[in-house]
Specification:
Elements: H1 9-17, H2 32-46, H3 75-78, H4 113-123, H5 132-140, H6 148-156, H7 165-176, H8 185-196, H9 204-213, H10 220-223, E1 235-237, E2 262-263, E3 267-269, E4 281-287, E5 290-295, H11 296-302, E6 304-309, E7 312-319, E8 324-325, E9 327-329, E10 346-353, E11 356-361, E12 366-368, H12 378-382, E13 388-390, E14 393-396, H13 397-403, E15 408-410, E16 449-454, E17 460-464, H14 465-473, E18 478-480, E19 483-488, E20 491-496, E21 501-502, E22 504-508, H15 509-515, E23 520-522
Parallel strand pairs: 2-6, 5-15, 17-23
Antiparallel strand pairs: 1-10, 3-15, 4-5, 4-14, 6-7, 7-8, 7-9, 9-13, 10-11, 11-12, 16-17, 16-22, 18-19, 19-20, 20-21
Helix pairs in contact: 1-2, 4-5, 5-7, 6-7, 6-8, 6-9
Protein backbone atom coordinates (compact mmCIF):
# COMPACT_ATOMS: atom_id res chain seq x y z
CA UNK A 1 0.00 0.00 0.00
CA UNK A 2 1.44 3.37 -1.02
CA UNK A 3 1.19 6.12 1.62
CA UNK A 4 1.12 9.84 1.01
CA UNK A 5 4.67 9.98 2.41
CA UNK A 6 6.06 7.90 -0.45
CA UNK A 7 7.07 8.75 -3.98
CA UNK A 8 4.43 11.08 -5.48
CA UNK A 9 6.32 14.00 -6.96
CA UNK A 10 4.19 17.10 -6.52
CA UNK A 11 2.02 16.21 -3.57
CA UNK A 12 5.08 15.03 -1.67
CA UNK A 13 7.96 17.19 -2.83
CA UNK A 14 6.30 20.56 -2.61
CA UNK A 15 4.53 19.89 0.66
CA UNK A 16 7.63 18.51 2.35
CA UNK A 17 9.77 21.28 0.91
CA UNK A 18 7.84 23.95 2.79
CA UNK A 19 7.39 21.84 5.86
CA UNK A 20 3.70 20.96 5.56
CA UNK A 21 4.31 17.23 5.92
CA UNK A 22 7.64 17.32 7.69
CA UNK A 23 6.24 16.01 10.93
CA UNK A 24 4.07 13.38 9.24
CA UNK A 25 6.77 11.63 7.22
CA UNK A 26 9.91 9.94 8.45
CA UNK A 27 13.21 10.59 6.72
CA UNK A 28 13.08 7.09 5.21
CA UNK A 29 9.82 8.01 3.45
CA UNK A 30 11.23 11.05 1.68
CA UNK A 31 12.22 10.31 -1.90
CA UNK A 32 15.27 11.67 -3.69
CA UNK A 33 12.96 13.88 -5.71
CA UNK A 34 11.76 15.61 -2.56
CA UNK A 35 15.22 16.00 -1.10
CA UNK A 36 16.46 17.53 -4.35
CA UNK A 37 13.76 20.14 -4.51
CA UNK A 38 13.33 20.83 -0.79
CA UNK A 39 16.21 23.26 -0.13
CA UNK A 40 15.24 25.59 -2.95
CA UNK A 41 11.59 25.74 -2.02
CA UNK A 42 12.41 26.11 1.65
CA UNK A 43 14.47 29.16 0.77
CA UNK A 44 11.64 30.49 -1.34
CA UNK A 45 9.14 30.14 1.46
CA UNK A 46 11.54 31.65 3.97
CA UNK A 47 11.95 34.83 1.96
CA UNK A 48 8.26 34.74 1.03
CA UNK A 49 8.71 34.49 -2.65
CA UNK A 50 10.55 31.86 -4.64
CA UNK A 51 10.53 32.75 -8.31
CA UNK A 52 8.82 35.96 -7.26
CA UNK A 53 7.49 37.28 -4.02
CA UNK A 54 4.77 39.21 -2.27
CA UNK A 55 6.48 39.46 1.10
CA UNK A 56 5.06 42.09 3.41
CA UNK A 57 5.05 40.42 6.83
CA UNK A 58 7.55 42.07 9.16
CA UNK A 59 9.77 40.65 11.86
CA UNK A 60 8.45 41.15 15.37
CA UNK A 61 11.04 43.82 16.07
CA UNK A 62 10.14 45.77 12.96
CA UNK A 63 13.34 44.82 11.20
CA UNK A 64 13.35 44.55 7.42
CA UNK A 65 16.68 42.78 7.13
CA UNK A 66 16.57 40.07 4.48
CA UNK A 67 17.44 36.50 5.43
CA UNK A 68 20.81 35.14 4.37
CA UNK A 69 20.07 33.89 0.81
CA UNK A 70 22.48 30.99 0.95
CA UNK A 71 21.01 29.39 4.06
CA UNK A 72 18.08 26.98 3.76
CA UNK A 73 16.03 27.27 6.98
CA UNK A 74 14.46 24.47 8.90
CA UNK A 75 10.91 23.59 7.74
CA UNK A 76 9.28 25.29 10.72
CA UNK A 77 11.11 28.52 9.94
CA UNK A 78 10.19 28.15 6.28
CA UNK A 79 6.56 28.63 7.25
CA UNK A 80 7.31 31.98 8.80
CA UNK A 81 8.45 34.60 6.30
CA UNK A 82 9.40 37.35 8.72
CA UNK A 83 11.34 39.74 6.54
CA UNK A 84 11.24 41.38 3.15
CA UNK A 85 13.75 39.60 0.89
CA UNK A 86 16.42 41.29 -1.10
CA UNK A 87 15.69 40.60 -4.79
CA UNK A 88 17.71 37.64 -6.02
CA UNK A 89 18.18 36.47 -9.58
CA UNK A 90 14.87 34.66 -9.35
CA UNK A 91 13.14 37.83 -8.15
CA UNK A 92 14.21 40.07 -10.98
CA UNK A 93 11.48 41.72 -13.07
CA UNK A 94 9.88 39.43 -15.60
CA UNK A 95 8.81 42.15 -18.02
CA UNK A 96 12.11 42.45 -19.92
CA UNK A 97 11.22 42.70 -23.62
CA UNK A 98 11.05 39.25 -25.16
CA UNK A 99 10.49 38.19 -28.76
CA UNK A 100 7.64 35.79 -28.12
CA UNK A 101 7.25 34.53 -31.67
CA UNK A 102 4.23 32.68 -33.02
CA UNK A 103 2.06 30.61 -30.69
CA UNK A 104 2.61 26.84 -30.80
CA UNK A 105 -0.13 24.44 -31.79
CA UNK A 106 -2.85 23.33 -29.40
CA UNK A 107 -5.42 20.59 -29.59
CA UNK A 108 -9.08 20.85 -28.68
CA UNK A 109 -11.27 18.73 -26.49
CA UNK A 110 -10.12 16.45 -23.68
CA UNK A 111 -6.44 15.74 -23.16
CA UNK A 112 -5.07 12.53 -24.62
CA UNK A 113 -5.23 9.46 -22.37
CA UNK A 114 -1.44 9.28 -22.39
CA UNK A 115 -1.06 12.84 -21.05
CA UNK A 116 -3.84 12.34 -18.50
CA UNK A 117 -2.06 9.22 -17.25
CA UNK A 118 1.29 11.04 -17.07
CA UNK A 119 -0.01 14.06 -15.16
CA UNK A 120 -2.18 11.93 -12.89
CA UNK A 121 0.90 9.86 -12.18
CA UNK A 122 2.93 12.94 -11.30
CA UNK A 123 0.20 14.06 -8.94
CA UNK A 124 -0.43 10.68 -7.38
CA UNK A 125 -3.98 10.54 -8.72
CA UNK A 126 -3.72 7.21 -10.47
CA UNK A 127 -1.47 4.26 -11.25
CA UNK A 128 2.09 5.33 -11.81
CA UNK A 129 5.46 3.71 -12.46
CA UNK A 130 7.02 6.66 -10.56
CA UNK A 131 9.20 7.40 -13.58
CA UNK A 132 9.04 11.20 -13.39
CA UNK A 133 11.32 11.77 -16.38
CA UNK A 134 9.24 9.48 -18.60
CA UNK A 135 6.04 11.22 -17.53
CA UNK A 136 7.52 14.63 -18.35
CA UNK A 137 8.67 13.30 -21.73
CA UNK A 138 5.12 12.17 -22.50
CA UNK A 139 3.84 15.69 -21.77
CA UNK A 140 6.60 17.29 -23.84
CA UNK A 141 5.95 15.01 -26.82
CA UNK A 142 2.16 15.47 -26.79
CA UNK A 143 2.12 18.30 -29.33
CA UNK A 144 -0.52 20.05 -27.20
CA UNK A 145 0.78 23.36 -25.84
CA UNK A 146 -2.19 23.59 -23.48
CA UNK A 147 -0.17 21.44 -21.09
CA UNK A 148 2.46 24.15 -20.88
CA UNK A 149 0.31 25.63 -18.12
CA UNK A 150 0.83 22.60 -15.91
CA UNK A 151 4.57 22.62 -16.55
CA UNK A 152 4.74 26.34 -15.74
CA UNK A 153 2.88 25.70 -12.50
CA UNK A 154 5.44 23.05 -11.61
CA UNK A 155 8.24 25.53 -12.25
CA UNK A 156 6.69 27.94 -9.76
CA UNK A 157 7.74 25.59 -6.98
CA UNK A 158 11.29 24.74 -7.99
CA UNK A 159 14.36 26.91 -8.33
CA UNK A 160 17.04 26.97 -10.98
CA UNK A 161 19.62 24.29 -10.34
CA UNK A 162 17.34 21.75 -8.68
CA UNK A 163 17.33 18.33 -10.32
CA UNK A 164 13.82 18.55 -11.75
CA UNK A 165 14.05 22.08 -13.10
CA UNK A 166 15.94 20.98 -16.20
CA UNK A 167 13.64 18.11 -17.25
CA UNK A 168 10.57 20.32 -16.74
CA UNK A 169 12.04 23.14 -18.85
CA UNK A 170 13.06 20.55 -21.44
CA UNK A 171 9.48 19.27 -21.59
CA UNK A 172 8.28 22.88 -22.00
CA UNK A 173 10.75 23.42 -24.85
CA UNK A 174 9.66 20.19 -26.56
CA UNK A 175 6.05 21.28 -26.20
CA UNK A 176 6.35 24.90 -27.30
CA UNK A 177 9.65 25.23 -29.13
CA UNK A 178 10.84 27.82 -26.59
CA UNK A 179 13.85 27.42 -24.32
CA UNK A 180 13.02 28.97 -20.95
CA UNK A 181 15.90 27.42 -19.02
CA UNK A 182 17.60 29.68 -16.52
CA UNK A 183 16.89 31.38 -13.20
CA UNK A 184 13.48 32.69 -14.31
CA UNK A 185 12.08 29.63 -16.06
CA UNK A 186 8.71 30.05 -14.35
CA UNK A 187 8.42 33.72 -15.30
CA UNK A 188 9.48 33.19 -18.90
CA UNK A 189 7.24 30.18 -19.46
CA UNK A 190 4.23 31.90 -17.92
CA UNK A 191 4.84 35.14 -19.83
CA UNK A 192 4.94 33.21 -23.10
CA UNK A 193 1.71 31.36 -22.35
CA UNK A 194 -0.03 34.58 -21.29
CA UNK A 195 1.14 36.45 -24.38
CA UNK A 196 0.10 33.64 -26.69
CA UNK A 197 -3.20 33.31 -24.81
CA UNK A 198 -2.86 29.54 -24.85
CA UNK A 199 -6.10 27.91 -23.66
CA UNK A 200 -6.07 25.47 -20.77
CA UNK A 201 -7.21 21.86 -21.17
CA UNK A 202 -10.53 20.93 -19.54
CA UNK A 203 -8.74 18.95 -16.82
CA UNK A 204 -6.55 21.89 -15.80
CA UNK A 205 -8.38 23.22 -12.73
CA UNK A 206 -8.32 19.95 -10.74
CA UNK A 207 -4.70 19.34 -11.74
CA UNK A 208 -3.72 22.80 -10.60
CA UNK A 209 -5.71 22.31 -7.41
CA UNK A 210 -3.63 19.25 -6.53
CA UNK A 211 -0.43 21.26 -6.85
CA UNK A 212 -1.61 24.31 -4.94
CA UNK A 213 -3.56 22.57 -2.20
CA UNK A 214 -0.46 20.61 -1.27
CA UNK A 215 0.91 24.00 -0.19
CA UNK A 216 -2.19 25.53 1.37
CA UNK A 217 -5.37 23.65 2.21
CA UNK A 218 -7.11 26.96 2.92
CA UNK A 219 -7.43 27.51 -0.83
CA UNK A 220 -9.66 24.47 -1.26
CA UNK A 221 -12.99 26.40 -1.40
CA UNK A 222 -11.60 28.45 -4.28
CA UNK A 223 -10.27 25.59 -6.39
CA UNK A 224 -13.20 23.25 -5.81
CA UNK A 225 -15.86 25.76 -6.90
CA UNK A 226 -16.61 24.46 -10.38
CA UNK A 227 -18.78 27.51 -11.12
CA UNK A 228 -16.08 30.06 -10.24
CA UNK A 229 -15.61 32.82 -12.80
CA UNK A 230 -11.83 32.57 -12.46
CA UNK A 231 -9.33 32.18 -15.26
CA UNK A 232 -7.16 29.61 -13.52
CA UNK A 233 -4.37 30.11 -16.03
CA UNK A 234 -3.55 33.50 -14.53
CA UNK A 235 -3.60 32.39 -10.88
CA UNK A 236 -0.20 32.05 -9.21
CA UNK A 237 1.23 31.75 -5.75
CA UNK A 238 2.21 35.05 -4.14
CA UNK A 239 4.80 33.49 -1.85
CA UNK A 240 2.71 33.68 1.34
CA UNK A 241 -0.08 31.74 3.04
CA UNK A 242 -3.80 32.56 3.23
CA UNK A 243 -4.95 34.95 5.96
CA UNK A 244 -7.55 32.73 7.60
CA UNK A 245 -6.89 33.72 11.21
CA UNK A 246 -9.88 33.23 13.47
CA UNK A 247 -11.73 36.36 14.52
CA UNK A 248 -10.28 36.25 18.01
CA UNK A 249 -6.77 36.32 16.53
CA UNK A 250 -7.00 39.23 14.09
CA UNK A 251 -4.76 41.41 16.26
CA UNK A 252 -2.01 38.81 16.12
CA UNK A 253 0.50 38.24 13.32
CA UNK A 254 0.06 35.26 11.06
CA UNK A 255 1.79 32.23 12.60
CA UNK A 256 2.48 30.69 9.20
CA UNK A 257 3.42 33.69 7.10
CA UNK A 258 0.29 35.33 5.68
CA UNK A 259 -0.34 39.02 5.05
CA UNK A 260 -2.62 40.02 7.95
CA UNK A 261 -5.64 42.24 7.37
CA UNK A 262 -5.99 45.25 9.68
CA UNK A 263 -9.45 45.42 11.23
CA UNK A 264 -10.86 48.64 12.72
CA UNK A 265 -7.45 50.25 13.21
CA UNK A 266 -6.67 52.68 16.00
CA UNK A 267 -6.59 56.24 14.73
CA UNK A 268 -5.46 59.64 15.92
CA UNK A 269 -6.24 63.19 14.88
CA UNK A 270 -3.92 65.08 12.55
CA UNK A 271 -1.80 66.38 15.42
CA UNK A 272 -1.36 62.84 16.71
CA UNK A 273 -0.09 61.83 13.29
CA UNK A 274 3.15 63.78 13.66
CA UNK A 275 4.96 60.44 13.68
CA UNK A 276 4.44 60.23 9.93
CA UNK A 277 6.60 62.48 7.68
CA UNK A 278 4.77 65.23 5.83
CA UNK A 279 6.33 64.18 2.52
CA UNK A 280 5.39 60.49 2.90
CA UNK A 281 2.57 58.97 0.87
CA UNK A 282 -0.92 58.42 2.26
CA UNK A 283 -4.07 57.02 0.69
CA UNK A 284 -6.90 59.37 1.57
CA UNK A 285 -10.57 58.43 1.74
CA UNK A 286 -13.59 60.62 2.53
CA UNK A 287 -17.01 59.16 3.39
CA UNK A 288 -19.95 61.39 4.35
CA UNK A 289 -17.57 64.21 5.18
CA UNK A 290 -15.28 62.12 7.40
CA UNK A 291 -11.69 61.94 6.14
CA UNK A 292 -9.03 59.39 6.99
CA UNK A 293 -5.45 58.86 5.86
CA UNK A 294 -3.95 55.40 5.52
CA UNK A 295 -0.12 55.65 5.48
CA UNK A 296 1.62 53.79 2.71
CA UNK A 297 4.04 52.04 5.06
CA UNK A 298 1.10 50.66 7.07
CA UNK A 299 -0.63 49.47 3.93
CA UNK A 300 2.54 47.81 2.63
CA UNK A 301 2.53 45.57 5.70
CA UNK A 302 -1.21 44.93 6.09
CA UNK A 303 -2.44 45.21 2.45
CA UNK A 304 -6.05 45.02 3.60
CA UNK A 305 -8.11 47.18 5.96
CA UNK A 306 -11.68 46.61 7.15
CA UNK A 307 -12.87 49.85 8.71
CA UNK A 308 -15.81 52.13 9.53
CA UNK A 309 -15.72 55.65 8.10
CA UNK A 310 -18.53 58.18 7.88
CA UNK A 311 -20.94 55.63 9.29
CA UNK A 312 -20.19 53.15 6.50
CA UNK A 313 -18.22 49.88 6.46
CA UNK A 314 -15.44 49.85 3.90
CA UNK A 315 -12.85 47.35 2.73
CA UNK A 316 -9.57 48.70 1.41
CA UNK A 317 -7.15 46.40 -0.43
CA UNK A 318 -3.70 47.65 -1.37
CA UNK A 319 -1.86 45.72 -4.05
CA UNK A 320 1.77 46.66 -3.60
CA UNK A 321 2.66 44.92 -6.85
CA UNK A 322 0.13 47.05 -8.77
CA UNK A 323 0.69 50.34 -6.95
CA UNK A 324 -3.05 50.33 -6.39
CA UNK A 325 -5.00 51.25 -3.24
CA UNK A 326 -8.75 50.80 -3.68
CA UNK A 327 -11.75 51.10 -1.41
CA UNK A 328 -15.17 49.45 -1.48
CA UNK A 329 -18.35 49.82 0.52
CA UNK A 330 -18.95 46.47 2.15
CA UNK A 331 -22.16 47.20 4.05
CA UNK A 332 -24.42 46.93 1.01
CA UNK A 333 -24.19 43.13 1.10
CA UNK A 334 -26.42 43.18 4.20
CA UNK A 335 -28.50 40.01 4.11
CA UNK A 336 -26.51 38.29 1.34
CA UNK A 337 -26.16 34.61 2.31
CA UNK A 338 -26.54 35.47 5.98
CA UNK A 339 -23.91 38.23 6.13
CA UNK A 340 -24.63 41.59 7.70
CA UNK A 341 -22.73 44.86 7.43
CA UNK A 342 -20.58 44.17 10.48
CA UNK A 343 -19.77 40.57 9.51
CA UNK A 344 -18.43 41.01 5.99
CA UNK A 345 -14.64 40.88 6.08
CA UNK A 346 -12.09 41.00 3.29
CA UNK A 347 -8.82 39.11 3.61
CA UNK A 348 -5.69 38.43 1.53
CA UNK A 349 -5.57 34.94 0.01
CA UNK A 350 -1.85 34.67 -0.77
CA UNK A 351 -2.72 34.08 -4.42
CA UNK A 352 -2.24 36.45 -7.33
CA UNK A 353 -3.81 36.87 -10.72
CA UNK A 354 -1.71 38.68 -13.31
CA UNK A 355 0.40 40.12 -10.48
CA UNK A 356 -2.66 41.50 -8.65
CA UNK A 357 -3.55 40.31 -5.18
CA UNK A 358 -6.52 37.95 -4.88
CA UNK A 359 -8.81 38.95 -2.02
CA UNK A 360 -11.64 36.95 -0.53
CA UNK A 361 -14.47 37.27 1.97
CA UNK A 362 -13.54 35.40 5.14
CA UNK A 363 -16.91 33.92 6.21
CA UNK A 364 -18.16 32.72 2.83
CA UNK A 365 -14.73 31.96 1.31
CA UNK A 366 -15.84 33.87 -1.79
CA UNK A 367 -13.10 35.23 -4.04
CA UNK A 368 -13.38 38.81 -5.32
CA UNK A 369 -11.81 40.47 -8.30
CA UNK A 370 -9.73 43.07 -6.48
CA UNK A 371 -9.76 45.49 -9.40
CA UNK A 372 -13.51 45.44 -10.02
CA UNK A 373 -15.05 44.44 -6.67
CA UNK A 374 -17.05 41.62 -8.24
CA UNK A 375 -17.44 38.27 -6.51
CA UNK A 376 -16.00 35.57 -8.78
CA UNK A 377 -16.52 32.46 -6.68
CA UNK A 378 -18.46 31.05 -3.78
CA UNK A 379 -21.84 32.00 -2.33
CA UNK A 380 -21.33 35.69 -3.06
CA UNK A 381 -20.86 34.94 -6.76
CA UNK A 382 -24.12 32.99 -6.64
CA UNK A 383 -25.74 36.01 -4.96
CA UNK A 384 -24.39 38.34 -7.67
CA UNK A 385 -22.50 40.57 -5.25
CA UNK A 386 -20.54 43.45 -6.73
CA UNK A 387 -19.05 45.94 -4.27
CA UNK A 388 -19.46 49.67 -4.88
CA UNK A 389 -16.14 51.41 -5.25
CA UNK A 390 -15.23 54.81 -3.79
CA UNK A 391 -12.35 57.13 -4.58
CA UNK A 392 -8.91 56.82 -3.04
CA UNK A 393 -6.65 59.86 -3.29
CA UNK A 394 -2.90 59.26 -3.41
CA UNK A 395 -1.05 62.22 -1.94
CA UNK A 396 1.32 63.24 0.85
CA UNK A 397 0.44 63.42 4.52
CA UNK A 398 1.32 67.13 4.59
CA UNK A 399 -1.02 67.99 1.72
CA UNK A 400 -3.81 65.75 3.04
CA UNK A 401 -3.95 67.18 6.56
CA UNK A 402 -3.65 70.74 5.27
CA UNK A 403 -6.73 70.25 3.09
CA UNK A 404 -8.59 68.03 5.56
CA UNK A 405 -7.60 69.44 8.96
CA UNK A 406 -10.18 67.29 10.75
CA UNK A 407 -8.79 64.10 9.25
CA UNK A 408 -7.76 61.09 11.25
CA UNK A 409 -4.79 58.87 10.48
CA UNK A 410 -4.22 55.26 11.42
CA UNK A 411 -1.85 54.59 14.30
CA UNK A 412 1.87 53.97 13.95
CA UNK A 413 1.52 50.98 16.28
CA UNK A 414 0.97 47.50 14.90
CA UNK A 415 -1.86 45.52 16.54
CA UNK A 416 0.61 42.85 17.73
CA UNK A 417 3.13 45.35 19.12
CA UNK A 418 5.90 47.52 17.81
CA UNK A 419 5.70 50.12 15.08
CA UNK A 420 5.66 49.91 11.31
CA UNK A 421 8.96 50.15 9.40
CA UNK A 422 9.40 53.39 7.46
CA UNK A 423 10.04 51.61 4.16
CA UNK A 424 8.92 47.97 4.36
CA UNK A 425 9.51 47.05 0.72
CA UNK A 426 12.79 48.92 0.17
CA UNK A 427 12.21 49.52 -3.53
CA UNK A 428 11.28 45.91 -4.29
CA UNK A 429 9.18 46.82 -7.33
CA UNK A 430 11.19 49.78 -8.64
CA UNK A 431 12.63 47.91 -11.64
CA UNK A 432 9.29 46.58 -12.91
CA UNK A 433 6.84 43.75 -12.22
CA UNK A 434 8.37 40.78 -10.39
CA UNK A 435 5.57 38.40 -11.36
CA UNK A 436 4.58 37.27 -14.86
CA UNK A 437 2.18 39.60 -16.64
CA UNK A 438 2.55 38.55 -20.26
CA UNK A 439 3.15 41.18 -22.90
CA UNK A 440 2.46 44.63 -21.45
CA UNK A 441 0.38 47.27 -23.22
CA UNK A 442 3.03 49.36 -24.96
CA UNK A 443 1.17 52.66 -24.84
CA UNK A 444 2.94 53.52 -21.57
CA UNK A 445 5.78 52.17 -19.49
CA UNK A 446 4.71 49.42 -17.11
CA UNK A 447 5.07 51.47 -13.91
CA UNK A 448 3.62 54.73 -15.17
CA UNK A 449 1.00 55.75 -12.61
CA UNK A 450 -2.47 56.37 -14.01
CA UNK A 451 -5.71 57.53 -12.46
CA UNK A 452 -8.23 54.91 -13.45
CA UNK A 453 -11.96 55.45 -13.81
CA UNK A 454 -14.69 52.95 -14.63
CA UNK A 455 -17.99 54.40 -15.82
CA UNK A 456 -21.49 53.05 -15.25
CA UNK A 457 -21.57 51.56 -18.75
CA UNK A 458 -18.43 49.55 -18.03
CA UNK A 459 -16.11 51.68 -20.16
CA UNK A 460 -12.84 52.76 -18.60
CA UNK A 461 -10.46 55.70 -18.83
CA UNK A 462 -6.87 56.02 -17.64
CA UNK A 463 -5.31 59.46 -17.10
CA UNK A 464 -1.52 59.69 -16.88
CA UNK A 465 -1.17 61.01 -13.34
CA UNK A 466 2.02 63.02 -13.76
CA UNK A 467 0.70 64.76 -16.87
CA UNK A 468 -2.65 65.47 -15.21
CA UNK A 469 -0.83 67.13 -12.29
CA UNK A 470 1.18 69.28 -14.69
CA UNK A 471 -1.86 70.39 -16.70
CA UNK A 472 -3.94 71.17 -13.64
CA UNK A 473 -1.10 73.20 -12.14
CA UNK A 474 -0.99 75.19 -15.39
CA UNK A 475 -4.70 75.90 -15.12
CA UNK A 476 -5.75 73.58 -17.93
CA UNK A 477 -8.82 71.37 -18.00
CA UNK A 478 -8.15 67.64 -17.88
CA UNK A 479 -11.08 65.83 -19.50
CA UNK A 480 -11.80 62.74 -21.54
CA UNK A 481 -15.03 60.94 -22.40
CA UNK A 482 -17.05 63.25 -20.20
CA UNK A 483 -14.85 62.70 -17.12
CA UNK A 484 -12.95 65.52 -15.46
CA UNK A 485 -9.86 65.07 -13.32
CA UNK A 486 -9.61 67.57 -10.47
CA UNK A 487 -6.90 68.28 -7.92
CA UNK A 488 -7.73 67.33 -4.34
CA UNK A 489 -5.35 67.69 -1.39
CA UNK A 490 -2.31 67.33 -3.60
CA UNK A 491 -3.75 64.25 -5.29
CA UNK A 492 -6.22 63.50 -8.06
CA UNK A 493 -9.83 62.40 -8.23
CA UNK A 494 -12.48 62.21 -10.94
CA UNK A 495 -15.93 63.67 -11.44
CA UNK A 496 -18.42 64.13 -14.24
CA UNK A 497 -18.71 67.38 -16.14
CA UNK A 498 -21.76 68.03 -13.95
CA UNK A 499 -19.64 67.82 -10.81
CA UNK A 500 -20.81 64.38 -9.61
CA UNK A 501 -18.16 62.22 -8.02
CA UNK A 502 -16.85 59.24 -9.98
CA UNK A 503 -14.88 56.52 -8.19
CA UNK A 504 -11.21 56.61 -9.09
CA UNK A 505 -7.85 55.35 -7.89
CA UNK A 506 -4.26 55.28 -9.07
CA UNK A 507 -2.48 52.17 -10.29
CA UNK A 508 0.52 51.17 -12.33
CA UNK A 509 -0.30 51.14 -16.04
CA UNK A 510 0.52 47.47 -16.51
CA UNK A 511 -2.07 46.53 -13.90
CA UNK A 512 -4.83 48.87 -15.08
CA UNK A 513 -4.39 47.91 -18.73
CA UNK A 514 -4.36 44.17 -17.97
CA UNK A 515 -7.69 44.28 -16.22
CA UNK A 516 -9.10 46.89 -18.61
CA UNK A 517 -7.41 46.12 -21.96
CA UNK A 518 -9.87 48.30 -23.91
CA UNK A 519 -9.33 51.33 -21.70
CA UNK A 520 -9.25 54.80 -23.17
CA UNK A 521 -5.90 56.46 -22.43
CA UNK A 522 -5.44 60.19 -21.87
CA UNK A 523 -1.79 61.21 -21.97
CA UNK A 524 -2.20 64.96 -22.21
CA UNK A 525 -2.24 65.29 -25.97
CA UNK A 526 -3.98 62.22 -27.33
CA UNK A 527 -6.93 60.12 -26.28
CA UNK A 528 -6.16 56.61 -27.57
Amino acid sequence: MVTKCQTRFSLLAIAIAIGLLATACSSDDVSNVASDIAPSVQAEAADAGGAAAEPETMADDGSTAAPEPTTAPEPTAALRPTAVPEPTAALRPTSTPVAYGPAPGVLSGPSSPEVVSAIDGLLGLGPSDNDVLRQLEVIGASGDARHGWFLADMLRFMSYGTSLNEPVTTAFADLTGVDVSGPDAWGLSTNHLLTWDIPAPPEYRPWKAELFLSLEEGWEPFFTDTDAAIDWRTVSWGGVRIDDRELDAVDLPCPEGCIPALNDPDVTDAAGGDWYPDDAIVFGVVVNGEARAYPKNVMEVQEMVNDTLGGRRIGMPYCTLCGSAQAYFTDEVDGAVGLDAETFELRTSGLLTRSNKVMYEFHTKSVFDTFTGEAVSGPLLDAGVALEQLSVITTTWGDWKQNYPDTTITSENRPWGGTYPDDPLRGRDDAGPIFPIGEADGRLSVHESVLGVELADGSTIAFVAATAHERLAAGDVVEASGVLVVADAGGLRAETIDGDAVASHQAFWFAWSQFHPDTVLWDGTVVS
